[in-house]
Structures are given as structure tokens and as C-alpha cells.
Amino acid sequence: MKKSLIFLVFAAFALIFAVSCSNTSSKPSVITDSDMWANDDDSSVNDEDTDTPEDSENDTDTPDEDTAPDHDVVIVEGLDYESGFIYLEENEYFLSSRNDKSGRAKIWYNFQPADENPEEKPLFVFYNGGPGSASAIVFLYNTAKKTADQAFSGEGVADNAYNWNQIGNLLYIDARQTGFSFGILDYPTDGSARSAYFSTSNFNVFVDAADFIRVIFRFLESHPKIKSNPVILSGESYGGTRTTAIINILLNVADYAENNRVFYDEKLFEEIARHFKEIDPSITGMPSKEDVAKQFGRQIMIQPLVMGQKQMDAAGGLLEQSDSPLYTIQNETGLEYSKCGFTPNCSKYNNAINYVQNADRDIYSYRRPYNWLFDYTDAGTAKMLQMPMFEELIMNDPTKISELHAETRAIEGAFRYSDDNGFSRNLTWSDKFENLPEIEKTIIKARTRQRNAHPLSSGNLDSFFGELPLYDEYFVDLSYSITYTFYYASVSPYSDVNGEMFLENIRTTKTFITQAEEDIVIYAKGIPEAAKSFSNVSSVDTEENSFTVHFKDGESATVTFPFYPESSHSVSVNQPEKFFNDVKNWL
Lowest-pLDDT range, 55-64, 305-314, 496-505, 552-561? Predict the structure, then answer.
């Protein structure tokens, strides 16, 4: 794509008048857990360690009463359909005793008010996972006011009969560098600075959770009419890991602020404390678990990864049992399924995934052909990249959002990719993926094959907002540079700490988890099975639509676990009516 003349002018302007808070171009470090499966010499993910915080510096009780937020606050008096970006500044933090700093970003959101009495309704916060995925599927497919689902809308956009606006306010968020969200650098033309941004400093479980906490609280701060309303996190796939970290930080912020956990971010904890003090002046110091649960006491998880590697191991074992859907595939295709059994060094989970692929079935929806879900949802994503369907879907005028214009992006230092050929619709296999877990390599290979066969439409947004440099793009549906980086962090999506946090959270937080029949990647039966392998769990009882975890201290926690017999990994795609009604009744 050639750069337009107007972009060249403004890019030059950006070099002179770049935004202030600079992002370091040095390559940050990564500490790998002792049991991590991979090491890599890629300079974008490895560097040297720094010191841990002193305990005396981290005894944070509460922010000073005169402390003002260090971010801009624009009060929105009404509650109407709204889209825009929330700025994230640089933030220093500690993870696994390593001092680090996250870079600047602007995070995209779309807000849709409840149909009736929005001031009194809860706020559902939606996001997909990846890590590295935009929140397009959960937005485009049958939760929002409008739907791009071709089953209901044909080639256009239609009213969604199952919109969740009937039961609450809706907030959709794209994670850092996914969807419409973009990173910020003083000099985005500097390829080494862009490459350094794609490091574990910006992409790990806890920084990702911190990003979302900041965005949610800053959105609530700008919308005082719903600032104290209940918030229900609703994440899909890796979004379950994200939800787990968010809820754990919030519920236990007092303990985190005392530097008793793996993650420490003083400014984040101050922002959390300030929020709860503002909605309840009786709160002094850091909010208690009970204080937090009044607002963040419910969570919805759509085919989630919540137990790390233990969840995959448990799923693999179940997939070898006689009632496994793999035998259904065997009967239908004639391709024999060979179990690992007691074969050494054979991963039962990876073996199952590879079998489904070899049978030319979709690992996200085993009754359907290979890569069915990707192909199906790409059709909806393509609609969002076309004006005026984009405007119809977000329910407000995108041309009034300054950050969607090439001129503004050039001035702000926006970028999406580390190289000049990173368009998400041109996925290619890279040797650096070879050190990823087998399941991640399998998924990337499947996605690459699918995208090469059916390239994602480029859309026509540049006709309205201007042409962008090759390192930028208006919308990124999936970034494997992000996926790759997450698995080099000291806390990766497969770390046991995720399961430990999940089990801690469900003691306090009312939890709803979908159980989709056709999903093999997240074989949901593996979740309660995996819980049994954690040392603080004595037993797990599984019922038809729930499971109960019994802890060794005598406490128990019951999780709502409804079954979706016709659903793929994306439940709102296949059974939106049942999903909506189940959530409505659960509330």
C-alpha cells in the first residue's frame, strides 16, 4: 500500500512534535519459570533482570486523599451508544520479582446502554482471548444490539433478537494492539522500537489484566451514572485467564499492595483504591474482598482457559475415555483414533487435537469441516471493515472519532506491527513459533492455512480515514506476535498460578462457565477435572449443569455449568438464544 501525501506530511510532523511520555526502546527482560518449556534468543523477548521492590516502599494502604488521577477524565453525562479510545500511560510494575514497565497504548471500546433504565442495570464487559485476538466475535455475533451473523443478517447487518441490552449495559474492549487498539511510540518509524514493544513487558497475564482494570475504571469514572453499578466480566477462551487475573487482583488488592503476590503495580492499586473510596466513602485504605465483591461479584466465562496446563492435561485424559467425541469422528470418517494410553512422552491432549485435524474436522467445532469457525466468523469481521456497516454495528458515527483518522494517528505515533509487512490478513508461518506449546503451533498452522486460502477482506476504512503506513492498520483481528510473546513471560497462560487464582476467586465470585459440546480446544469437562489436581481441593462433584469444588478447609464453591449441545468454541455464534436466556435466568 502506498503512503498518501497527507500521511507523509503528518508523519514528518510527528517526528518533530511527538507526544511527550516516551516509550523506552531498550529491550526489556523476561524471567522464565523453572519449568518453562522454551527459551529463545529473540531480543524482543529477552534481556537482563533488575531488582525487586523493597518491602518498606510497598506498604501501600491507600492513596493520599488529595491525589488526583494521572489520566484525563472527561465526564459523559448521558448514557448513549458510544465508541472511542482510552489512553494508557507508561506504568512501572514488578512481575516475578522483575522490575519492568509497560508502554503506552490507546484502547478501543464500544459502549451500548441497556434498553431500559440503564442507570440501574449491570455493566457486562465483553472480550475475546487469543491471547492476541480482537473482541470481534463476541461483539459481532449475537450479544450486541446489532448482529453481523450471516445466519440472521445475510450480507448486511441486522437487529439482534438476543441482544444483551435487554438485561444490561454492554462494554466491548479490544486488548492492547488487537482490534482497533493501537500502541504509541515517539518515533513509530523506528523498527527496533516497534520490535521492542512486542515483548513480555507489554504482553503477559498480569499486565493484560492491569490494562483492562484501568480501562474499566476509567470508563466508569467518565460515566458517573453507572460508576457504582455491578460489573460482570464476560470473557471467551483466553478471556477466562484474563478474567481470572482481573478478579484476583481486585478481590485481593490489599494483599497485592503489601507485595505478597507475584505482581506489584503501585499506581494500579492506588487507582483501584480511589475508585472504591469514591463509590463508598466509608471505605478506608485498600478495599476488602467483600467491598470489591459488591461490584465485581459475578463472572461469565465462555469456553475459558482457567486452569493452565493442568486443564489441557485433564481434557486430554477425558478425550481418551469411551464417551469421547473423538470416537464419533472415527465412526463418521473411518479414520482410526489411536490413544496415547501409557505411551511415554505422548501428550493425550495434543494427540487428540492432531487427530481431529487429520480427520479434516474443526478443532473448535468437531462436527464441522476443518477451520469452519474461522471461515464463518471472518465473514462477520469483513462487514465491520466496511462503511457504513461499521457505523451500523457500533451504533454511532466513527468519523467523529479522531484516533480513527490517519492524520491523528501519525501525530500520536500509532503503530500495530514490529515490521513493515505485518498485516493480519497475510499470516505466514515463522520458525520462531517452533518453541511454542504444541497446541499453539497447531492452532497457528491451522489459522495460517485458513487465512492463505481465504484472505480477510481489507475493507474500505482507508477511503474514509486515510491511508496508513505499512506498520499501522485500522483493525487487527489476530496477532500471533502477541500470542508468541505471552508464552515467554514468567507467568504464561499455562502457568499453575492461573488455576490457583481461579479456585480462590470462585469462593467469592458467582461464576457461570459454558460447556460447549463441539469444542475440542477447550474441552470444558476438563475444567472440573483439572480442579482435582490442585493441592487445596479435596474433591469435585459434577452435576448436569453445575460443578461444586470442595476445598480441604471445609469450604465449597458451586459453578453454574450449562451444557450447549450444538455449540462450537463461540457459544454466541451457535446457540445465542439459549445463551442469552441462561444468563438472564442466572442473574
Answer: 55-64
Residue written as grid cell 460482570: 232
In 3D space, the residue among 269, 261, 257, 277 whose CA is nearest the CA of residue 57 turns out to be 257
State how far Cα 109 lies from the chain centre. Answer: 13
The three cell numbers of residue 20 are 511527550
Q: Which 8-state DSSP code applies to residue 183? A: E
Q: Which residues, other chains included, contact 14 with Cβ-Cβ below 8 Å and sequence gap of 6+?
A: 188, 410, 411, 412, 413
- 231-236 and 298-302 beta bridge pairing: parallel
Amino acid occupying residue 563: F
In whole angstroms, what is the distance from residue 52 CA to residue 54 CA?
6
Q: Which long-range contacts (C-beta less than 8 Å, at least 24 apart) are formed by 461-465?
A: 461/385, 461/387, 461/390, 461/404, 462/1, 462/406, 463/387, 464/387, 464/398, 464/399, 465/399, 465/404, 465/405, 465/406
Q: Rounded to whole angstroms, how far apart are CA atoms 263 and 374?
A: 35
Report how far residue 503's alpha carbon sits from residue 306's, in angstroms, rounded to the nearest whole number.
9
> What pLDDT sits at residue 46?
39
**For residues 581 and 377, what is the distance between their CA atoms, to the nearest angstrom?**
23
Q: What is the pLDDT of residue 496?
A: 96
pLDDT at 53: 57
Dist. CA 19–CA 14, nearest whole Å: 8
CB 109 within 8 A of CB 97: no
Q: How long a stretch of residues is the chain?
A: 587
Lowest mean pLDDT among 124-138, 367-381, 445-459: 445-459
Alpha helices in 148-252 (DSSP H): 150-153, 191-197, 205-222, 238-251
Q: What percent of the chain shows pLDDT beyond 70? A: 88
Binned at pLDDT 50, 70 and 90, residue 411 comes out as very high
Residue with cell 463418521: 332
DSSP 421: S
**Measured between alpha carbons, how far is 305 from 302 in angstroms, rounded to an integer?**
9
Distance CA 74, CA 222 (A): 6
